[in-house]
Write a structure and sequence with these properties.
Elements lengths: L3 E3 L5 E2 L14 E3 L10 E10 L5 E14 L5 E9 L5 E7 L5 E6 L13
Amino acid sequence: MTPIKCSNCGRELQENERPCPDCGCSARTYDESGLGVDLHISTGAKWKHVGSDGVRKTKGETKSTRQRDPRLCGQKVDTYLMVDEQNRKHHKVVDRETGRIIHEHTDPPKSRKRRGKNS
């Protein structure tokens, strides 16, 4: 069971104690640090430019993730993915505590073949 504390004075409370017997505050704080709850944080960005024809084109994009990786026994890692203007994917996984690179990979540029009936 998750420990419940009074937000004002910090006294441990039972589930049915409201308000706090010591200070009379009804606000509660739930301590979930012992439950193994971890956040998964992800951010991303794209950068564009205006071509000679006046059309905005994507030059590249990036995505960064901070999580526990289940494939690495719950190890805390930062994952970086970047796609540059030649459409190459750069992928890197870094151990958050030591800064050691666990995995790094760069894909070659994708070919821009037309697909369909009239290609």
